From TrEMBL:
Function: Catalyzes the removal of dipeptides from the N-terminus of oligopeptides.
A family per Pfam: Peptidase_S46
InterPro entries: Pep_S46 (IPR019500), Peptidase_S1_PA (IPR009003), Peptidase_S1_PA_chymotrypsin (IPR043504)
Name recorded for this polypeptide: Dipeptidyl-peptidase
Amino acid sequence: MNKLKLNLIALSLLFAGAAQADEGMWLMQMMQEQNSIELMQKAGLELAADELYSPSGVSLKDAVGIFGGGCTGEIVSANGLIFTNHHCGYESIQQHSSVEHDYLTDGFWAMSLEEELPCPGLTFKFIDKIVDVTDIVNQRIAEGLITEGESLTYEFQDKLRKELYQQSEYNGRRGIETELLPFYAGNKFYMFYIKSYDDIRMVAAPPSSIGKFGGETDNWMWPRHTCDFSVFRVYADAEGNPAEYSEDNVPLHTPKHLTISLGGYEEGDYAMIMGFPGSTSRYLTRSEVEMVMNSENEPRIAIRDARLNVLREAMAASDKVRIQYASKFAQSSNYWKNAIGMNKALIDNKVLEQKTAQEEAFARYAAEVGNEAYAKVVGEIDAQVGEASELTYLWTCAVETFVAIEFRSPAQYMSELVKAKEEGNEDAVESLKAQLDVIYDDIHNKDYDHQVDCQVARAVLPLYAKLAGESRPDFYDIVANDYNGDYDRFVNDLYSKSIFSSRENLAKFLKKPTEKALKKDLGYRVSMSMTDNLISLGESKQRMEQVLAIPHKTYIRGLCEMKQERQNIPSAPDANFTLRLTYGNVKSYDPRDAVHYDYYTTLDGVMQKEDAHNPEFVVPEKLKQLYEAKDYGQYAMPDGRMPAAFITTNDITGGNSGSPVLDSRGRLIGLAFDGNWESLSGDLNFDNSLQRCIAVDIRYVLFIIDKLGGCHRLIDELTIDN
Ligand code: ARG
């Protein structure tokens, strides 16, 4: 073959690759400059750019928002109806559940607006406006008002955010939030104006045996049969403005909602996802990938393992504890399993080797373009990694331990009370006493079991000491000196004798709040020591991040330039919980030798996985009856079967949960809810052949709402395209 022909083949391969994209959580506001609309249309998109995202008009992006603290949801009716994942609504479902009203087990179907349940604390946020503020930052650097290093600090970005907000038309409006964030490690900056609604009500949820079918066993795995959806609604005041909960609030009339397609998909079909991916780190050096493995994932696995073992046993022994800890268990277990899978996939997929190759290619590139900063930068990062790893390791140990144990003492308030008492400031004394009462109830809340937490502490505290070694917080001296190293005795005292361990102890302290009582209180001493430790580690970590900020910015700029110049492929910025779009195809894959995974599953698979003896794989009777009768209505596939889940090559991560999967015409075909086991290295390195997004088929969702839940009023609200 001659050289020209080879070059042509190489060239066409390159563009074929680019047209399929897959990797890339693209910024919608950058689609024009990065030329991605053309690439998307080439891949099958049948919409124009401003139908996806329009800075001034209404577009698809207006039907997508942030659900709660870390998920995505989409608007599916003109009356503010939201679809998201079951695991995203899980905390609300759990909070409304009790042994009497066990919505976790039985599901929840509001048969009228009046039955929709308020969820205090839950929010839904729309992105109102996105502004590129990079030039403002760069100009301030050019004018000498700030250094480049300062531009990369939170302090500066927060100050600029406030300044821009105050100058904007949004200033003073209720429900408006703003964010100013760096992208590409500070090579770009965007400001976001966000409209946050805080009266969100729970509308429907399937039983967990459907919405969480497969449980922890199937989590992060394909083939999957989970109907992972729940339904909520946005309420607002009569003018459609964000308003805190009130009986007078009405469903929000939404300017844009998604149309639903019952047409399904085939292998190779175009698919795209809009949503809020939380965090990726695709531009790390090899040494930094090792740091994630050893200093984040390893201690996370160990500490969560210890906690989850305690919770598993306690939940199995009591229905009350099972309901109390359901959401906490799922949350902890989710990234415990993710960390295990990520470390395995990083090795299996040879990510370290790929990183070495990337660094070699970058060194050659730096030499060719004669860029000294590029030539040095990997070395500069690597020089810090030893210290950074140590800090990250201790930080992870401390945070994981801190989060695992819920019992704590509000040390700050307690010492303020003692001070106020000494100074004879009676007003302050009364107000602090009242606050401490409230905090007590907050710790010992409806979903907290003091005995279970005590058992967690007995498991986790000695483990933390072992992991942190010499660098453990100084309250461990109490264990060594006063308890002769006997953790059980120490923890038992902490949980029975400290001021915050019982109402009686608190009442005694509030009667006579003295310095002496405080100084000998175990809870107080442990809390002080843990917090001091976290603060000092946090400060060191922040200093380290500042040292690395400019090298990171340089390295990312260089890698992006190299990819653009050598392969003509734009690079997407790392995820940071901002609105992104990813496009690709519905696609099967081969996880390992001789194994092929099809691109969709059906209800047949649910029946095959059924195991009446394993709570994760129980199939409810009513679903079995519908299956036997093949009573699928308009939701069946052409061959008469009921689809369950499907996979696409879209690039998503945690935070995308609940995101709409859209077809080439922007119609809703599924809800993204997971990633696959073989590519859990994807947050650090995307693998085009292995990485898949797992989505629940919208037809399965509607079938469950309609036939199992009998919630026809919701179906009537939707816009369905056959
Ligand atoms: N892995 C899913 C995600 O992070 C969460 C699935 C929740 N289910 C569970 N069994 N914990 O989006």
